[in-house]
Amino acid sequence: MPELGRAALIVALGLALYALLAGAYAAWSGRRRLAASAQNAILAAFAATLAASLVLAAALLRDDFSFTYVQEHTSSDLSSAYKLSAFWGGQEGSLLLWLLILTGYSAAAVAFGRRVGRDLLAWVVPVLGGVCVFFAFMVTVVASPFATQPAPAEGAGMTASLQNPYMLAHPPLLYLGYVGLAIPWAFAMGALLSRRTDERWIVATRRWTLAAWTFLGVGQLLGAHWAYEEIGWGGYFAWDPVENAALMPWLAATAFLHSVMIQEKRGMLKVWNMILVVGAFLLSLFGTFLTRSGVVNSIHSFTQSSIGPWFLFFIVLATGFSLALVFSRLPILRSQTRLESLISREATFLYNNLLLVALCLTILWGVLFPLVSEAVRGEAVNVGGPYYNFFLRSFGLPLLLLMGIGPLIAWRRASLRALGRTFLVPLGVALAVGLVLLVLGAGSSIPGLIAYTFSAFVLASIAFEFVRGTRARRALGASSWPAAFSSLVSRNRRRYGGYIVHAAVVLLAIGVAGSSAYETVREGKLRPGQELRVADYTLRLRSIEQRETANAVQVRAVLDVERDGSELGSLRAGKNTYRVGDEVSNEVGIRSDLLTGEDLFVTTDRIDGDDSVYVKVFVKPLVNFIWLAGIVFILGSLVTLWPDAREQRRLLLRYEPQAAPTEA
Amino acid sequence: MIALSVAALLAVFLLYTSIAGGGTPSLRPSQLDARDGRVTLAGKVVHGSVRGDAREGGLRFRLRDVEGTASVPVLYRGSVPDLFDEDRDIVVQGTLRNGVFVAQPGTLVTKCPSKYAPAKSGSQDRA
Amino acid sequence: MTLLALALAAALAVACVVYVARPFLREPAPAVDRLDEPGELERRRLALAEERDRALGALKELEFDHRTGAVSDEDYRALVGPLRRTAAEALRALEPRATGELGRVRAGR
C-alpha cells in the first residue's frame, strides 16, 4: 500500500499548490467561484493527508516491514499503542503528523471561518496553502515515510525509554500547539493582504490562539514530568535547546494573548501585535527546525539531517514575506490612541509584554550563542544554566508581581490613592506571608523568598477579585453565594478564566522556586543496613531485589524511609535492563508528600554485585505544585475558551447587522 | 519607547555573555591542543579503551572526534549515565591537565544512540 | 495489492478534483462572479461599529470595576462622563450610516 500513501501525498501537494496559486489569484482579482474552489482545495488536502496517514498507521499496526519507516521504528513485540506512537517517533512520520495537523487546522479554520468575511478568507487561503505546500513538499520529496524495501523478518524496535504513555501524548500535544500558531499568523497576513484595518482577524482567531497556546503549555509540562519521573536525572527542565525551542513560541504567544486585549479595548498596538503573531509563528517553525537539524548541540538531536537547509530556507522565506507585508501596510496600521497614563491596566499589559519578549529574546540569544561564537571566534561557546536562571529571575519575578497588580488597576488611568486602597489587603497578606517564611528559614534564598512573597500577593489579589465580584453579583440580586459565583464567572468568562490561569502560573512559580531554591541533594554509597540522612529524612537500605519480566530484568534497591521518628514506608529505585538492544533504563523512586507537595526523589547510580548501591537523593519542596499548576491551567483555559452565546450575538450584530434581527 | 527598551535589553545580554563569561567553549578532542581552563568536550568513546571504575579510582577511556581520529585520554569520576558505552557520543566538562582531560564529576552526558537521533520535538532520552 | 492501491489512489484524486471544481460545476454561468469586498462605506461602518463596541465595552467594564470596588467613587465620576460621551457619539455616528446603508439595500444597489 505504500503507493497509495505516496500518491495521496502527491495529491495533497497538488491541492496545496492549487490553494496557494489559485487562491492568491482569486483574492487578487476578486473571483468568487475560484476563491471557493481554493477553499475546497484546503479541505481536500486534509482528506488526502488523512488518507496517507491512515496508510502509515495501518502499516505500523500490521508490522508491514516492507515500509522502511515501519522497520526502522517498531518491532512486532510492541503493543499496538506504541506501534502507533512510532508514527511520530521518527523524522518522516513526525513531518507527516505536522502536515496532518496543519491541514486539519486549516480545513477547520476555513470551514468555520466563512463568517469572517469572504475577502479576508480569500487571502487567508493562499497563505495557509503556502505553508501546506512546504510541508507537503517535505514529505513527498525530501523525507517520505513511504520508502520501501524488501521486507526483513523483524523490525529494529523502539528504544525502551520511548515505550511509555508520555510518548503517546507529549509529541502530539506539542504539535497541536506549534502548528496551531500558524492559524492566527495566516489570518493576520490575510488581513494585511486584504488591506483590512478592522479587528475581524483577531476575533476570528482568538480561540484558536488560546487553544494552541494551551496545548503548547500542557505539552511542555508533560515533557517536564516525563523527564522528572521517567528519565530521572533529578530535574524537570534543563534549558536544553530543544526545551527552549518550545518555550520561546509559548512566551511570544503569551505576550500576544495579552497585547491583543489592548487592541480590542483601546485600538492600540496594532503594529506590535502583528510583530508578535509573526514572531510566535516563526519561533514555532524555528523550534521545529532546531529539534531536527542537529544545528545546535543538544543531547536530543545530534545527527546532521538533510532537512535542515530546507527548513532554514522556508523560515527565511516566511520571515521575509511577513516583515515585508507588515512594513508595506504600516500606514494603515497606525492608530490614534495613545497611552494615557503609565499607571493603568494598559501600561501593566505593556510592561508584561516587554518582560515576556525580553525573556524570549534572552532564551533565543542563549540558543544561538554557540552558533554565533563559532562563526565569530571559531569555537562554539555554550551559555549554561546560570545565564538562563539569572534572566529567568530578573524577568520572571517582576512578571509575577505584575500578574497581581494588573487586575487591581483600572483601565486608562488609576489614581495613586485608589491604588493604595485596593492594594492594601493583598499587600498586607504578602508581607505577612513573607515574614512568616523568613522566620521559618526561607531566607536562605533571597530569590526564592521574593518568589514566595510575590506569589502570595498575586494569589491574594486573585482571591480578592473573586470575592469582590461575587459580592457585587450578590448585591445585584443573586440568590445565593454559589449562584452569584457561577453567574459571575459565566458572564465574565475571559476575565475570570484568565484569573484562574494566572493562579496556575503562580502555582508553577511556587513549585519551581521551592524545588530549585530550597532543594537538598546528597549522594552516598550504601550497604544493606546503612543509612543516609537528607534534610528531614533518613533512608536505610534494606535489600536489593531482582525481578524478571517478559522483556527486562528489574533490579531495585529497597530503602526504608523515616522522618522525625516515624516510619514512612519504603521506596524502590533501580534499573531495568532490557533484553532487546541491551538497553538500561533508570527507574527512580519518588515519595510525594501530599500535604506539603514535597518529593523525596531517589535515583541509583550503580548497584554492585556485593549489594552496595550508589544513590543520589533529592528533597524537593513543593515540586508537586508544578503538576497541580498544569491541571489548574487546563481548567482556566477551558473557562476562557467556553463558547459564549451572548458574545456571539454581539459579534454577529457588529459584523453582519443585516443578518441579525433589526436593531435600529 | 519599545525600540529603546529592546535596544537596552540587547546591550544587557551582550554585556553579560561577554564579560560575565557565562559560557564554556564546546570543543572536539582535535581542538583541545594545549588549552587550559574549563571546557566542554564532545566526542565518541574509542572502542576498547574503557577501563577502571568511576566510583573507585576513576574511569579512564579515550575520546575521539566524531569524524576524525584525533583522540585524548579522559579521567572521570562520578555518576555514569546508563547509556554510556564504547562507540557512543558523549559530552563531558573538565580541564586538560598534563595531556589528560580530567573531568568534572557528574558532568558526563551521553547522547542518544544515532539510531533514534533523527528527532522530533523533545521527546528523546535525556541521558 | 498494488492494483488496489492504484485504484484507491485514482479514486482519491478524482474525488478531490471534483470537489475542487464543485463551485464551477454548480454555477457554470453565474450572474455575478465577483468576490464581495467591503466598499468604502462598509469599511467605515465596520470601523464605527468597532468603536461603538469598544466604547460600550469600556463603559460596562468601568461600571463592573466600580461595583466590585476596583475603581473608587471619585475615579468613577471622573472617568464615566467622557466615556458616556464617546459611546453616545459612536452610536450617533453609526445611526445615519446604518439608515443610509439600509436605504441603499432596499433601493436594490
Q: Any idea what the radius of gyration of chain A is?
A: 27 Å
Number of helices of chain B: 2
Q: Mean of the pLDDT scores of chain A?
A: 88
Which structural class do the helices and strands of chain A define?
alpha+beta
- Globular, elongated, flat, extended or rod-shaped: what is the shape of chain B? elongated
Beta-strand percentage range of chain A: 5-15%
Order of H and E elements of chain B: HEHEEEEEEE
Name the chain pair whose interface involves the most residues.
Answer: A-C, 68 and 53 residues
State Rg of chain B: 18 Å
Structural class of chain B: alpha+beta
Instruction: Give the CATH H-level superfamily of chain B.
Output: Nucleic acid-binding proteins
Low-confidence region ranges of chain B:
114-127
Helical residue percent band of chain B = 10-25%
Strand order of the largest sheet of chain B: 2-4-5-7-6
How does this structure look, described?
The complex is a heterotrimer of chains A (664), B (127) and C (109). Chain A has 664 residues and is α+β, with helices and mostly antiparallel strands. Chain A has 4 domains: 1-163, no CATH class; 166-411, no CATH class; 415-516 and 634-655; 520-620, Sandwich (Tick-borne Encephalitis virus Glycoprotein, domain 1). Chain A has helices at 2-29, 32-62, 68-73, 80-85, 91-112, 118-142, 165-180, 182-193, 200-231, 241-266, 270-293, 307-328, 330-333, 345-377, 385-405, 416-440, 446-475, 481-491, 493-517, 624-641, 645-655; strands at 380-383, 520-526, 531-534, 537-548, 552-563, 566-578, 584-587, 589-593, 598-607, 613-620. Chain B has a 5-stranded mixed barrel. By secondary structure, chain B is an alpha+beta fold. Chain B has 2 helices and 8 strands. Helix content of chain B is 17%, strand content 34%. The longest helix of chain B has 18 residues, at 2-19. Chain C is mainly alpha-helical. Chain C is 81% helix and 0% strand. Chain C has helices at 2-26, 40-68, 73-106. The longest helix of chain C is centred in the last third of the chain and has 34 residues, at 73-106. Chain C is elongated. Chains in contact: A-B, A-C. At the A-C interface, helix 1, helix 2, helix 6, helix 10 and helix 16 of A face helix 1, helix 2 and helix 3 of C.
